[in-house]
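Section 5.1 Outputs to date
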Amino acid sequence: MNVMDAAYNLVAAYPGGAASLAPRVGKAATTLAHEVNRTGTAKLGLETAVAISVMSQDLRILDAFAAQCGRMTLPLPEVLQEGDSTVLARLGDMLREQSHVVREVTESLADGYISANEQARIRLEAGELIATATHLLKAVDQMRRQGAAAEGFPEVAS
């Protein structure tokens, strides 16, 4: 999906459409509708694209932009405040996602080739694996900092 199709679909899917979303981002409803419909000379700007993505909590514009650039998006890890059970939970999450990647690849190879849809599913699963690995690393970092603080050791840059 290209970025403009993603923008159009985001606005259309928002409850109340452009009439509801536009005022929340400081636009007139007709202006936003023209921008995503590509009516006349109206063009959707980057700041508006970010604003409607944040307001709607819908990342399809970001994902389409990344895909058009041959990239993918990953969620930033949340700040983790729990102890070792969080590390083990994140490790379990990562191993589960790893099994999803293995399953998707092996199922896709069953007929001897990988279709575009299968490739997209593999990329999605791999992205989720990367995200869970990032969450695991954040939990490990947090636990190390908590342990160093509890033992009175100063934080050392790593």
